[in-house]
Every structure is written in C-alpha cells, then in structure tokens.
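TA notes. Do not distribute before section.
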Amino acid sequence: MSRRTKKVGSSGKFGARYGISVKKQIRALEGSKRSIYVCPKCTKRNVKRVASGIWECRSCSHKFAGGAYQPRTGKFNTLANRLGRV
C-alpha cells in the first residue's frame, strides 16, 4: 500500500480540505508541540507538554507555564537577552 501522508505528515487527518500550505503550517506547529525540550531547573532534555501552555520535566517533576506550542516563546527570549539571561 502507498503512504497517504507523505507530504503532510500528521496533518493528513484533514484529507483533501484546507490546502497544502495550511497543512504544512499545522505540521510545523504539531512537530514543535510534541518535541522534547530542556528543563530550566535541572537542565536535562526531558520537558514535555502537559496541556496548552503547561510544561513538565519528567526527571525532576518541575511544572511551569510557557507558550502554547513551545516552552519559551519569542518574547521570552527577547526579554531574557535584554536582562542578560538565557
């Protein structure tokens, strides 16, 4: 059998609707949402998304608020750079 979601990946659930450009954007968001990030407390690469804007480290059980799809948003990085932290 052929692969049905070669171009669109996880956004293949939308079928023939919405167009390829929208599906690519959704695929990028879902990819960043599901990936693993670095914990700000223990610095291990073990942070996963619990709910929208809530992130938890699986090693030290540290829960913190962040962006909806990434734990650190662009505004956070800008502010951290201005304060001299990263």
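Switch to the second chain here.
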Amino acid sequence: MSRAIAAIWGSTDTAPRPFGAIGETVARFLRDLTRDILNPYRPEKHYMRGPGPAWQAKYGKPATRG
C-alpha cells in the first residue's frame, strides 16, 4: 500500500501535510514546556541574596525592613 501511495505522489517526502505545521508547533510547545517545568535550575535562588561580607565591612549592616 505504501508503495502505491509513494508511486502516486512521487515520494513520501513530498506528500502534502495540511496539518503538519500545527503538529510541529504543538510538539515544540510541549517539549519546551516540559523542559522548563523539569529543569531544576532556578537562578533566582542563587543570585542576588543581598549584600556580601565586603559590602557589610565597608558600609555596616543593611537596614532591616519593618
């Protein structure tokens, strides 16, 4: 059966795929979504934690929010 279809269309690579772009877009979206959800790296947990020891030595303790 696939040989008959390939003979009609010329090859299977040139067969029209009317919804092919939609499927690729959905697949790309799902791949990116799962990559972002499953990625354990969160830079906001590692950077900008506040003034470091050099800043505290130069300026003193920062004012606390109250």
